Amino acid sequence: MKILITGTAGFIGFHLAKRLLERGDEVVGVDNINDYYDVNLKYTRLAQTGIFKNQIQYGKPVKSARYDNYVFYQLDLTDCDHLNKLFKQESFDAVCNLAAQAGVRYSLTNPQAYIDANIQGFFNILECSRHHAIKHLVYASSSSVYGLNQKMPFSVHDNVDRPVSLYAASKKSNELMAHAYSHLFQLPTTGLRFFTVYGPWGRPDMALFIFTKAILEGNPIEIFNHGNMQRDFTYVDDIVEGIVRLIDNSPNPDMPYRVFNIGQGAPVSLMDFIAEIEKNTGIIARKDFLPMQDGDVVATWADVDELQKTINYKPSTSIKEGIKHFMAWYKAYYKVPAVQEIES
Question: Which among 114, 167, 198, 330 is annotated as catalytic?
């Protein structure tokens, strides 16, 4: 297939592009390479796929030096003219929209970024997909849509009308917009509610990255809600496997809209998560226990029954294995000296 992936300088988009390229799909990658976090990490991810910083010009195609089946464009999804031109000239079979303004806490201080990227940007993707007869639009939603829901595990059949951050509200809005386009224009759409994705090449604003950096630098880590937190941590390779299988599995034409949880299906306590990081760094963290933060939730837990029924797949990488893989990457990327692991 010929597949457009937005957000290919980002964490999940980078891994997905590599996976699809290596199985032989033709991939066009798009990213605006904004400075929400370290742009050097984004450029280094791109370089891993043969796209080099000195070749990138806004709106111009860059042919990969590593994959014959990969072309990259620096492009902002709010740029209607360039985006429409791209859809017209490339004739995609499928679109996977992973580009978004991420982060719950950032949405408290920079709300406009979420309206621009997550609402306007996604609307433009829907419009282009509609007008250019895209056979399947897959897009990133988030477990944050469950908000104040108390029933565990979170099911895709649950009501999700109580978001506690603008980020969550923007992702719920994406699902509603996709539903309208599926209903009105028979556009096949699949929404993916990701649950706390982690792994090599991860985002510096995520807990695993923040904790690892602080511990290795001898700084205290901030632990909210006094450590009384649980997360359904999901390893990035498991997320990518789920995305690939769902791209290949289009919705039933009679019901072209659907949403799935993609999570481990087994929440882990924050303190156990930190203990595994300590084991891999060989350092006991200095801990500052703090109250709950605005926009945060106590626990997440994915019901993945629908995912299993549809594609016969469920994420399975353990926290122990996943953190070990992340730590190996982190130490190599940041040239961290070898340390003795703490015994389990």
Answer: 167
